[in-house]
Amino acid sequence: MKGIFNYIDRPSPIHELTGAAKLVCLLLWSFAAMSTYDTRMLIVLPVLSFMLFAVSKIRLRDVSFILTFTVVIMVLNNLLIFLFSPQHGVQIYGTKHVLFTITGRYVVTQEQLLYHLNLVLKYLSTIPIVLLFVCTTNPSEFAASLNRIGVPYSIAYAVALALRYIPDIQMQYHEISQAQQARGIEMSRKESLIKRLRAAAAILVPLILSSMDRIEVISNAMELRGFGKHKKRTWYMGRPFRAGDFAAVGLGILLLAAALVLNHLNGGRFWNPFV
Amino acid sequence: MSQDKERELLLEFSHFGFKYKAQAEPTLHDISLKMYKGEKILIAGPSGCGKSTLASCINGLIPFSYRGEMTGSCKIKGKETSQMSLFEISRTVGTVLQDSDAQFIGLTVAEDIAFAPENDCLGEPDLHQLVKRTADLVGIGTHLSNAPGALSGGQKQRVSLAGVMVGDVDLLLFDEPLANLDPATGKVAVELIDEIREKTGAGVVIIEHRLEDVLHRKVDRIILMNEGRITADMTPDELLCSMLLKENGIREPLYLTALKYAGVRVTPEKCPGGIRTLSLTEEDREKVRSWFRNESGTEAAQEGRVMLEAEDISFAYGNGRQALDKVSVRIREGEMLAIVGTNGAGKSTFSKVVCGFETPGSGTIRFGGSAGWMGLSIKERADHIGYVMQSPNQMISQIMIRDEVALGLRKRGFDEEEINRRVEKVLRICGLWPFRSWPISALSFGQKKRVTIAAILALEPEMIILDEPTAGQDYRHYTEIMEFLKDLRDNGYTVVMITHDMHLMLEYADRCIVFHDGKVIADRSSAGVLTDPELVARANLKETSLYDLAKMCGIGDAEAFAKHFISYERTQVRR
Amino acid sequence: MKNSPVKTIVAIGIGAALFFVLGRFVAIPSPVPNTNISTQYGLLAFMAALFGPIAGALIGLIGHALIDFSYGWGIWWSWVIASACFGCLMGLISKKLKLADGEFGSKGFIGFNVCQIICHVLAWGVVAPVLDILIYAEPANKVFVQGLVGGASNIVTTAIIGSILCAAYAGSRPKSGSLSKDN
Predict the structure, then answer these.
(1) A53, B380, C32, C44: which sits with the fewest CB atoms below 10 Å from its CB?
(2) What single string gives the DSSP state of each residue in B232-247?
């Protein structure tokens, strides 16, 4: 059951960092990656994240399943974009350097290829770093981290509750679905779509209604143990910031600043080598 | 009662009543009750008697979470609860809820124990020390970083206890602490509660209808409730000599029932409050022996055709845990069989393999002599073996009873006429015919359970497997469900029950298969299992008190004694 | 029925956990190969109608973000925010449904479905594609078609699963009124 978030407990400098610092760094990093289309910056980010991977002692093998899955999605998304808008690059960069023509409007240009390269680099700039965060951050630290970066503690605790009850609900779903299958409820392709959805509902109704009862009991349990008593609360898993944590936050700030500066110098989000 | 003045009054109800906002009638009437620091009291009563509502009044959920009208007074440490806040009350009263999965809100043991002090803004390093100290106190200190999924039911309960004790409360309130535990773990839980009380001096209130199990350790007083009123408030010794338990729908300890059948006059002087304190005169012992000798009408077990034959079944989960190890089981037609063992012993996995939910690594299962069973899908197997989950809420997906029962038939494409015929038939068998046009929400828990059984029976299986058919039920509902299952058996169904309940095994199972660590370690009569100390210890069961009584009276064959008790009860007492 | 703040928090946590489990493990194969139909929006519509806009928004936000995190796709902010918007809007405009009081008749059914269609159109036809364009500079025609296809499929699942959930929940609430046995 512990496999959903893929936390891999290995001693490494990245593991040592507090969850809050990693979360801040991740957020700044992803804002940086999101905001810029400067190809040079988008090359630096993946290189940096692969270096961090090496430091964290997480091996590519540990995350290979997720990576393959993402590559498939990435390829599909690129194909879709080309299908819908083969001249998107031309629109963005304002020039047209034709390489070859496939058919009709499907003309391959240098601009379009650069745009696709940017897209691929964007995936590579965010996905490895998110995986790194997930693999090196104990889920228990997550709620405390959210609270530390300013999310109200009640909402941070809602996240903790979600993490706590996902395995329970998953197991319950599994059991209910087996018992309902025995009664003849199937979600396979053999049935029509509407029938499949109705079958899903026959499994989800008991699952969700019993969860509604559970909400009541859990909230009683929490109130009886003083949840919501004060405006603040402490966290067992909270840790004080150390030098490494400040460095991680600093790195995030640096990256975002670099992205913003580049956007300013480029006069837009795109770095245009064609003019 | 002269020492009352010296002791601190923890809890005081006087002429207290409560009516929920949504209800027309009050749930509690005229409750007057006092409790002192260090006392241990048991509140017992049938479902719906108001004991859970009383618990909510003690821990402050009433009036702070459930709205309604209060009359009279309810004081904690001399203060009216309505004048306090929920947080103030929770500083004095710690509640361990029945559902330890719902109470376990942290991601790990340590975080859960830390929950209350976190809310009190306790900082480092005190927080870690406090958690460690409290965890050690309840014996869970070596599991601090475990997730709830990696703990047993008993361990989760220890965590719940630690989670409320961490606040240094004066009163511990346990709401049905034994409901989800196997017998041996339940016994340990009762011992743990006692130990904690001795160490901390806190008062303890236990709400439970399983009287005999709680009385494993001494309680000071038993409060009996029925229909929202307190019907008795006396010591266990006094109460057990009266007829009050029966009148209030509570099962009395088996040894006591046996003594009464034997014609022994039970008086408070004989300390009947626990089997350990019980002292019998030689005359009494002779009475028990002669009652045992008088009757020796043990029925010969009927040997039916072998219906299900599992041979050398092995199964391992994805994480490598060997859940079943060369298990061989035979189930005969028309049998009523109990499968017992701790959580994780393999009993649920075995039934899943039989129903096709899991595919065994090796071994074969034959049904009705045919080896084709292994090739059948889950759905096809369900035409022969029906599986009923523990809680009806996990199965019911329709609003109307008729639709729920017809669901499996519609999915199998029967025509409406056949569906109507079968639905009518099973609704009559299950005693639900008068309710056929009702929505399921209007039914009681026991009736809902019957709806799920009816929905399975509609597929006309030859055998049904029930997971904990009576979990959480009081004596009346337990008897109702079990008598119904017995009727089914008498109608020719084969009934297999997966259970922790020793009374159920003893009273209703013809035979008992004991699982331990993925293996079958015993296959014999329930009376035999529950009077075999070695087997009982291995399988996390608990000896029936009939065993102790037999020993006490110098009866060597405890198994025969227990069997005699059951057949006496069946033939002489009921009907 | 007014929910206590703690109960709302728990509803958000459990709702997000359910959203996650449905999104990741309850995949219904769709007619288009390699794509699945998201059952979780039926749940989200139901929870939002029951617990209001804040709970709806946060269940969508947390549930969807957790799904993305578990896949390692970064945080696909545009779609995460669209899920949150759907939950929030649904909570806002389905206020009039009195599910907790056990009411879900044909009027409730129509109301619920009109609400969910409007909310899905806004979330997937406007919010998600606009954010995709702003954040990822993707071509407009592609993201609008994607949003509309996703929105249409979500409308169908919500119509079936959400309505069944509402009816089942309303049916399970205690109602006043007398029932008599038929003999």
Answers:
(1) C32
(2) EEE-HHHHHHSSHHHH
